[in-house]
Specification:
The complex is a heterodimer of chains A (356) and B (240). By secondary structure, chain A is mainly β. In chain A, 8% of the residues lie in helices and 29% in strands. Chain A contains two helices and 25 strands. A five-stranded antiparallel β-sheet of chain A has the order 9-13-12-11-10, with no helix packed on it. A five-stranded antiparallel β-sheet of chain A has the order 14-18-17-16-15, with no helix packed on it. In chain A, a hairpin with a 5-residue loop joins strand 10 and strand 11. The longest helix of chain A has 21 residues. Chain A is elongated, with a radius of gyration of 28 Å. With 240 residues, chain B is α+β, with helices and mostly antiparallel strands. Chain B has one domain: outer membrane lipoprotein receptor (LolB), chain A, CATH 2.50.20.10. The chains are: A mainly beta (356), B alpha+beta (240). The interface between A and B is large, with 101 and 104 residues.
């Protein structure tokens, strides 16, 4: 037993030394000159050599409250000894010596302090903040599977019933395209966003497909007699029953019916005449109300969105998401890139691939 | 035997990290002086002109020019507005929130932010890839970071930039070659920086500083972001 414990101890020490030698902080760098994170900023200002006043006299002209309580960066910090730099050459030990940990402000780079309660006495200063989203990284998940998108619901402005959000996400995954992408992908956060056409921003304005169509979250107490029941068996072999009426799908709730995203696999006898033909991998699909249909002998079947498909309009229920320097429209797991085709604003479905 | 193995590993660790560098003490003195001056500022305003090389879809070089105006008040106020080929946008940080606004798209992102300029810049860059103009120079450990990151730092004499006498300093490692011009007067401030990315087709990034105003009185309202009419608050994807 002692022998095993002893072995574990030595192996642990060796592994720790090796990890240290590889420089675990190499990736924790910022800006163009890649400053190590632990040196970025200091809120305490405790090291400031100059005794600065914490506030200016009240006699300053005007009513502006001038916050002059500290240096813009907490003061220049010198940790590496300059005494080791005689004349022109010096040997610098790259191990960082004697970092004053008391002065360090360590930033959690994976999770910045967002939506935290700092306990500040702020009167009516709360602002509407943006939803912060992430794409889950799963082994083998390269965008074609059923990705789960995490949504921070604290400031959710989307008109989707929470109970049905999972439903809507589950039916918005994207099929990969077999067409080769000539354009290099847009890269952000370890993901590559492929599109055939260049980014051309235009504001997201939801489109309404006429009086019969209803967006996600729309609630009605009763349905028209023309509505039919469509049964779907989900991934867990659970049977789900939808009500379909004129291009809109509803789930039954306690009080009535709520419009949801078209369930993939739903077979319907007809789709509204307003449905548009869209080309997907050199075949034609039909697009209506944010759903894609393939025609078959029994009518039309709802199919997943396919990367590279260009659509002229998007329904309500999406949200604009800033991804690096670009703004996409997101519906569950589907990202639409704003583009322009022959001078007309359109959207292309993005192929999102995780970096290997 | 195990103790020997650990000892050898420790030696390998120490020797692998201790490398001979060519660090010019004159260059470090000048950079230190500049960093001391920047670190002693309680507020500052300046403008920059940038030129950023990128490769287009065909792999050809394409240079993007931009002009930015920056203002900050320590320890927790920052704003910058940028107009250029890569877009027109601005940042506003009031100590509680940071907002990014795109003039081209008329949309914005507002996030709660850390409590100092540098922690805000650091965390927003890492989480969302926000790129704050000229942020490098305001890291309090600017000189130490150069010493640590570059194998050679040299002072190469004086050169003129826009009729201003400047100290000319270069720094190199396997990935980058940096040229730095610092004004050769009583107030030693950054004048120009050029970074060449050796492993990325020698793409170049250049920033030229102008119109420095040291310790100005800047009203807090400058740092407050008020969304323009019809601007949309949008979501944002985090890198992690």
């Amino acid at each position: 037993m002692n022998l095993i414990f002893s072995n574990i101890k030595y192996i642990s020490v060796t592994v720790l030394l090796l990890i240290f030698s590889l420089g675990v902080t190499e990736n924790l760098e910022a800006q163009r000159l890649k400053h190590p994170v632990s040196r970025g900023g200091n809120s305490s200002m405790a090291h400031k050599p100059i005794n600065r006043p914490t506030s200016r006299p009240a006699s300053r002209p005007g009513n502006n409250t001038i916050n002059r309580g500290g240096s813009i960066n907490g003061g220049h910090k010198k940790v590496i000894s300059r005494n080791n730099l005689p004349n022109n050459k010096a040997t610098v030990n790259r191990n960082r010596p004697n970092i004053n940990n008391n002065n360090k402000q360590v930033i959690n780079r994976n999770k910045p302090t967002i939506n935290n309660n700092k306990g500040k006495q702020v009167i009516n200063r709360s602002k509407n903040t943006s939803n912060v989203k992430t794409i889950n990284r799963r082994p083998g998940n390269t965008g074609g599977g059923h990705n789960t998108i995490n949504i921070n619901n604290s400031h959710n402005n989307i008109n989707i019933n929470v109970n049905n959000r999972n439903h809507n996400h589950r039916h918005t995954y994207v099929r990969h395209s077999h067409r080769h992408y000539v354009r290099p992908p847009y890269i952000f956060g370890g993901f590559r966003f492929y599109c055939h056409r260049p980014y051309y921003y235009h504001p997201y304005r939801p489109y309404y497909w006429g009086p019969y169509w209803h967006p996600w979250g729309y609630f009605v107490r009763t349905l028209a007699t023309t509505a039919i029941i469509v049964a779907i068996v989900d991934d867990s072999n659970n049977k789900e029953e939808y009500h379909y009426d004129n291009g809109t799908y509803y789930l039954k709730t306690e009080d009535g019916f709520e419009a949801v995203q078209a369930p993939i696999g739903a077979q319907v006898p007809s789709i509204p005449s307003e449905a548009e033909k869209v080309t997907v991998n050199e075949t034609n699909n039909y697009y209506y109300g944010g759903a894609f249909y393939e025609q078959n002998a029994d009518g039309y079947i709802v199919v997943p969105a396919t990367a590279g498909t260009i659509v002229p309009n998007l329904p309500e229920g999406g949200e604009e998401v800033k991804i690096g320097d670009q703004t996409f429209v997101q519906f569950g797991e589907t990202y639409y890139q704003p583009i322009q085709v022959d001078g007309k604003d359109m959207y292309e479905i993005v192929d999102v691939l995780e970096d290997e | 035997m195990k103790k020997h193995f650990c000892f050898v590993t420790l030696l390998l660790v120490l020797f692998s990290n201790a490398q001979t560098k060519n660090i010019d003490s004159t260059a470090i003195y000048i950079i230190d002086k500049m960093a001391d001056i920047l670190g002693s500022l309680e507020s500052v305003e300046f403008n920059i002109n940038t030129a950023t090389d990128k490769l287009d879809d065909q792999g050809n070089l394409s240079t993007f020019y931009a002009k930015s105006s920056i203002a900050m008040t320590g320890p927790n106020k920052f704003t910058s507005t940028t107009k250029g080929d890569g877009g027109n946008f601005g940042y506003w940080y009031d100590g509680d929130y940071v907002s990014y606004y795109s003039l081209d798209e008329n949309n914005y992102v507002t996030l709660e932010a850390p409590e100092t300029i540098l922690t805000m810049i650091d965390s927003m860059h890492m989480a969302f890839d926000f790129k704050f103009p000229a942020a490098d120079f305001f890291y309090p450990s600017f000189t130490d970071d150069l010493i640590e990151s570059f194998d050679t730092i040299s002072y190469k004499g004086q050169r003129d930039v826009n009729d201003d006498k400047c100290f000319y300093i270069t720094a190199s490692n396997t990935e980058k070659h940096v040229q730095l011009w610092i004004t050769a007067n009583a107030v030693m401030l950054p004048k120009r920086i050029v970074i060449v990315y050796k492993n990325e087709n020698n793409l170049q990034f250049e920033t030229t500083f102008s119109n420095w105003v040291l310790n100005p009185i800047i009203p807090d309202a400058i740092y407050d972001f008020t969304p323009p009419p019809h601007a949309s608050l949008i979501s944002i994807l985090s890198k992690s």
